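Lab notes, practical 5.
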Amino acid sequence: MKLQTDSPPKGTVRDWLNARADVGGTAMTFPETGEELSWADLRTSAAETAADLTSQGIEKGESVAVFHPNGLEGVKALYAALYGGFRVTMINLAAGPDAIGYALDHSEARVAFVHNTQLEIFNAAKPARMSLYAPSGKSAPLHDLSAKDDALLMYTSGTTGRPKGVVHTHSSLLAGGWTVSIAHQLTPDDRGFGVLPFYHINGLCVSVIGSLVSGGSIAMVSRFSASQFWQQAEDGGITWFSVVPTIISHLLHGKANPSDALKARLRFGRSASSALAVETQNAFQKRFGIPIVETMGMTETAAQCLSNPLDPAQQKIGSPGYGIGNDGRVADDKGQVCAVGEEGEIQIRGPNVMKEYLKNPDVTRDTFIGDWLRTGDLGRSDADGYIFITGRLKELIIKGGENIAPREIDEALYEHSDVVEAAAFARPNLEYGERVEAAVRLSEGSLATADDLLALCIARVGKFKAPDHVHLLHELPKGPSGKIQRLYLNELLYGKG
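Output from the prediction step:
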């Protein structure tokens, strides 16, 4: 097929990988190990494994789980599932055991690619039907594939506490890479920095699928390291990077500096996943001389849905920009567009918008107004069409770019027999954007301590999601219906300042 990037991509990931392999060149490098993967070798690996999975009876559109950190084998597993016409199900390694177990079960996957460092948690969380992928040495003709077929299943936290399974087709997944490519003018000469985990939509769509669509390449590392970031970027030969505000803050406060050669080669960095503080962006650009492009993205929009222009003169610091490759608007809950400066909900329409939430038609229906996706974020637009985020309709806590559902923390706290009321909430934090805290009312005479409750949360949801602090209160604030007013807790505990 002919690769065109001036309009939303046609075809499937299989088509695009075949075309890239035919052109040739490097797909990925891995600075930590010195490994390199060409497009041709990636296609060969993907095709062989896909044919093997097909011979083992894995059906078209069936979920195939990938339980890997960033790395060569994880990338091969990802592309094998996509190439074979299966619905690749990316498992968030940072999630707690309950969320991982739920995703593995809810996806109905029967087979999983699992990194050896993840075997213990996989074996503890997996449903009985699921097994590790084991090559059979056999081969079968691949399933027929179209752009409308399912490609990706990725779980994201929701206000109900249960992760929601976001389904993308080959068309919307490729469009996610395309919006990044056109917004940032990526070319085959560009090399991104795969520092974010590819089991998050940013690391997957912006870096991995972005390079597939643009024809560029990625230097991928296993995880972010503030002390090694600039040297790894130098060794990897990158020309741009995509990170979250937490990383920008860590780099800004770190001692390491990029070399003059790296700064000369770097075209830009981009920030997404949560709002980037104006002071942080200005200080980063002043210290390092590297422009930062602020964007907004969601799992439901295959990552990017708003972006500032690449030209610094057209950027508005404090805004994630406007729709490039898709449409963005601020509207009310009836779909009526708000006037300039009026607050409403940010809504998105375009080729990168998800197909559905898996096995959740009611929530899927309620998430759309016509063909506009309701993001749950509040914002306003200016006269130039730039959108400014002002808050959230949903109660998600965004810590370091990771969505955390307060209800998930609540449920962990309620497992303690002495907990009468519990509510997790977001507390502003310079390092992570937000941190998790919780307020709890204990039964009379309880001897439980805040440390006991923290330990329970860590055991149930993992250290990252667990509260930094648990407040023990005599009563939690409630509304007329008796519902706990979670959003009032910040003011109650810390005052309006």
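Observations recorded by the TA: The chain has 15 helices and 25 strands. Residues 165 and 359 are 8 Å apart (CA to CA).
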